[in-house]
Sequence to fold (406 residues):
Amino acid sequence: MTEKHKDTGTGWPNGEAPASPVPDQLQPAPPERDTAPSTSDRQAVAGATGERAVAGSNPLFRQVITRLNSPGVTIGLLLALLGFALVVQVKNTSTEAGLSAARLQDLVRIQSDLEAREERLRQEITSLEESQRRLTSGARSREAALAEATRRADELGILAGTLKARGPGLSLEFVAGPKPIRASMILDAVQELRGAGAEAMQISGGDGAAVRIIASTYFLDAANGALNVDGKRLTGPYTILAIGDARTMRTALSIPGGVVESVKGDGGNVIVWEREVVDVLAVSEPADLQHARPVS
Amino acid sequence: MIAVLALVAGAVLGLLIDPTVPAAVQPYLPIAVVAALDAVFGGVRAKLDGIFDDKQFVISFISNVLVAGLIVYLGDQLGVGGQLSTGVVVVLGVRIFGNVAAIRRHLFQA
Fold:
């Protein structure tokens, strides 16, 4: 293109003023014509008319005008514009994803597509929320049922004596006087404690052997003043641990004609301690039920 | 040479300025670019054939762009803008391919 431009530069003044030194000085290179002569001639004619129209007295001015008028500059401008537009369009398309340049029909179609999709997604959300609610409530109710069942099992286990228990309560020590402690006295004490709200009890003998007292526990007088509790032989002094409201149980034990008084009447003594923490550690083996079945 | 430099300069300018295309011009710019590309390839082919003419190039460039824009505008007014744009692009694409084939024959003799 440079060669082309030079051709044009030399071509125009040649047509107008062949002897002008300025264009020669400006374009000293010999005209290497790679274009056909006919084209060059046409350019010369066209250039000459344009040159005549803007001809000025100042050679420098004329030269500037000539160069500004040359089609090469126009071509350069057009191509620069093309490059500019190309880049702008490419950048515009890549940044805006073409939505703003899209046509009305396309936009309507895209919008209806999006609306259908939105509707579908909304339905999906609704159904998912529904199933989530169902699962949550199911899990919660199952959890609650499990917690309730666990609590109930613990309660029943403590009442049935199959679980170790801990809590505030009393410690009773039966010290025998001249007569041994009779089983009926222990039974009275146990009944009294139960009536006063004892929740878990155990009885231990002087040798430390302990038996959990449950609903079916029996007390028998054994030989030599010993005690048979649930088939286990215990010797005095006996200690009963009871978990429950300590003050109520103590009151129940020491009423006139109650356990404490009758033991003292036999010459023995009952020492009652209120304890912050009583550990009922003896457990009873659960009996295998052979006949009874739960009714549900 | 100057033309290539001008093309590069325009592209660089576009990168640097990074203008937003006005909404009114947006449908026409891509078509105008394709039309101008057609003119440029035609010019390159003419140059290689040795029949390049400055004036003809300038006029064909401008008229290409204007006619392409006009067709798209007309299509928009008639409600077939999308189809007409496609048609214009197809025609110009065919022409560009033809010109490129001619250029290729010149450069590689194949």
Q: What stands out?
A: Chain A touches chain B at residues 1-5, 8, 34-36, 39, 42-43, 46, 70-72, 74-89, 91-93, 100-101, 103, 105-106 (CB under 8 Å). The longest strand of chain A covers residues 269-280.
